[in-house]
Amino acid sequence: MHVIRHISPAITWVGGSDRRLSRFENLFPIPHGVSYNSYLISDQKTALLDTADASILQRFLENVSAALDGRPLDYLILNHMEPDHCAGIVALLERFPNLQLVGNAKTLTLFSQFYDLPLDGRTITVQDGQTLSLGSHTLQFFFTPMVHWPEVMMTYEQSEKVLFSADTFGSFGALGGTLFADEVDFARDWLPDYRRYYANIVGKYGVQVQNALKKLAAVDIQTICPLHGLVWRKDLNVLLEKYDLWSRYQPEEKAVAIFYGSMYGDTENAADLLACALADAGVHNLAVYDLSEIHVSEAISEIFRCSHIVLAAPTYNNGIYPPMLTLLHDMKALNVQNRTVALIENGSWAPTCAKNMRALVDELKNMSVLEQTVTIRSAVKDATRTDLLALAQAIAQSVQG
Ligand code: FEO
After folding, report:
1. How far is the first Cα of the chain from the last one, in angstroms, to the nearest whole number?
2. What CATH number is associated with residue 106?
3. Does the Cβ of 18 fall within 6 Å of ligand 1?
4. The whole model's pTM is what?
5. By residue range, what is the domain housing residue 83?
6. Pair (82, 204) in one structural domain
7. Which of ligand 1's atoms lies nearest the C-alpha of 201?
8. Three-state DSSP class for 339?
9. In this predicted model, what pLDDT tens digit does every residue of 34-90 receive, in sequence order?
10. Which family is it part of (predicted)?
11. Which of 25, 42, 214, 343 is most buried by a 10 A CB count?
12. Is residue 291 domain-shared with residue 221, that is, in the same domain?
């Protein structure tokens, strides 16, 4: 049975959620699931904005049929040609013989790479800024390349002022009946998933996101309909301000996140000691993470939130303990910038971890590394404790300064 929700009398959400998939892109754990959003506009012509993932294909097709209510589908707008939004294209082409695919030149190239179906006479190739009339509704296409694929575009419906934003403004998390951001406690229940989705899926492309935000700045947007997560029709600035911060690689909060790797508990001991000393010094926006226990995407998400990060790890194979090395590689891949970093290393006979971590941090833009690097020789002793207390003072001063 179909499950749809109306955004307006003419615009219907026809997407669905997957709560069984354990890893998005077979990579990122999604304990709260994920939604694949699709939207139908019914006017003199009908237009569907993107399709959905194969996992929800049957329900998606039921939803489209219900929303069409017996009418044919005239246009399928392809804002994004990644497979989590494309699984319904072929089925819809077969079901509606007069259906035309609407995309840009890159969209259609990607279509031919993923599918063998000939499209002769069934495509409309649009240019940046071009419009397409559906009757009283008019679609305008804005190209937003590399947010986060090259073909990505957003579609703006002029009469209702709705932006169909592709992955931008999307999130991990299945929908639970509540489709609109004003129907949920966003800060409590959704913000961490929004941040982790942004940081890990789009985070590398901050410049391109800034370009997209600038391009759309003059557009009167009343509603945002992304391909994942919630629909926004109120308080759009809550999300726009987060996107502005994230895409400029600016921290959301004056906060310290301590990430440690620890083989036998001694580096963990140092992390805990430092955290307690920071709390004693009045730094209470604090979080401590064992990198062997959390997924690297969670660490990246916290780095996008926090102004200060502490990296603590043992020397391993004369280098960096693997979970910390993975985090540093991801920080580089995702363009992390503008953070203050403190380093703690452990090494029983030849500690090299801090030097190697420093070298990788130095590859990032505008990172400030505190000079008080702490070296642990196997386990924390009185002298190391003194060094850690001094490091806590330096971090507290930096946070509070
Ligand atoms: Fe949700 Fe980039 O696909």
Report:
1. 58
2. 3.60.15.10
3. no
4. 0.97
5. 5-247
6. yes
7. 2
8. coil
9. 999 999 999 999 999 999 999 999 999 999 999 999 999 999 999 999 999 999 999
10. In the N-terminal section; belongs to the zinc metallo-hydrolase group 3 family.
11. 343
12. no
